[in-house]
Predict the 3D structure of the following.
Amino acid sequence: MKTQVAIIGGGPSGLLLSQLLHVRGIDSIVLERKTKDYVLGRIRAGVLERGLVGLMEEAGCADRMHAEGFPHDGTLVSYGDEMFRVDFTKHAGEHVMIYGQTEVTRDLYDAREKANGLIEFNVENVVIHDADSDSPHLTYNVDGDARRIDCDFVAGCDGFHGVSRQTIPLDVRKEYEKLYPFGWLGILSETPPVNHELIYANSERGFALCSMRNDKLSRYYIQCSLSDSPDDWTDEAFWAELKRRLPKEQADSLVTGPSIEKSIAPLRSFVTEPMRWGRLFLCGDAAHIVPPTGAKGLNTAASDVHYLYNGLRDYYENGSEAGIDGYSEKALARVWKAERFSWWFSSLMHRYPDQSEFDIKMQVAELEFLRSSDAAQKAMAENYVGLPY
Ligand code: RFL
Ligand code: PHB
């Protein structure tokens, strides 16, 4: 087979890129290791920046998001029984959109199918060949069948555990990583959210987050030990622990119910440089990971897609290589700012095993500064709604 852009990974980055290219008449094929149901079964992001909403609009996939999503103008931050609000509209002139990654992905799959876009599922052994030449190709297997795609460019949208990043030689690639000594235990439950906006809670028992997907579906997280397994946590134990970490008023009004999903995610900050090697371009989690505090993962994947899509457009429409040549530098400049924000917000909100009493005083002082300073709230709001592309 032959295509202009071969895309490895049928997660949100790969599908969004494929659909945006399609709108501009640029042909692509998406290769996905899992099934569509598996990809849609992963419960992940819930907060979308304006930039991602704009890309979904440009891709022609935003109707359901605008009908069913919930714009949020601010968020709540609590510590102990204290709570304050950071107003995004007032401080940054923008809101964020509450709409699950699952729904974004579903809308993109629907659009690709409607356009007869080719997505190969259950692919195995994807290998990228000659990425540093002008004519790269991919080989892979489906049901034991050996296949090949010749292409102009390869987009590595295959997440943290994919093959694309590993294809860049070690003497070219530099990786930066920070691991956090805790994880997030998350549950989804068919209960009304405790509050109409998100609550990020710093408590002496550890971090908690109250989020949602819609007015009947809640998403809650608590900081947990890395050695915990979801099976260690009954629903009752989860709800009891969450209540202990919220201000009393919120704990008292929390509606509990059976969980319909329960999982643990480790927290990691990770960046690989460069994000381009020859005709291979890394996008999204394939190139970087942020801890979820601040909801930057999917949104940073989207900004990569924006830069790559525009670079490829420039190449095919104007014959210019300037956009693709500048891709890695431009994408990384924004990636590092999202890394900083996620690291800062994680450091502010969690309990660390080796934290001293002094460290805890510093967290409280910073939370009180954030509560009382317009300048500090503006800095947080600007980052939370998303820095400009
Ligand atoms: P994905 O979603 O991992 O998709 C990559 C796809 O590539 C496939 N794949 C391969 N296909 C073919 N061949 C191979 N060799 C392959 N190897 C892998 C995989 O099966 C998969 O389908 O990466 P992508 O598209 O870059 O998207 C990134 C986002 O998924 C991620 O950044 C966010 O989910 C992070 N995240 C959040 N981001 C936000 O912006 N806002 C949030 O509120 C937010 N909350 C979260 C999150 C991530 C979480 N977890 C579990 C990590 C909450 C959680 C709990
Ligand atoms: C979510 O709803 O899953 C979510 C929201 C905000 C975050 C992380 C995750 O910072």
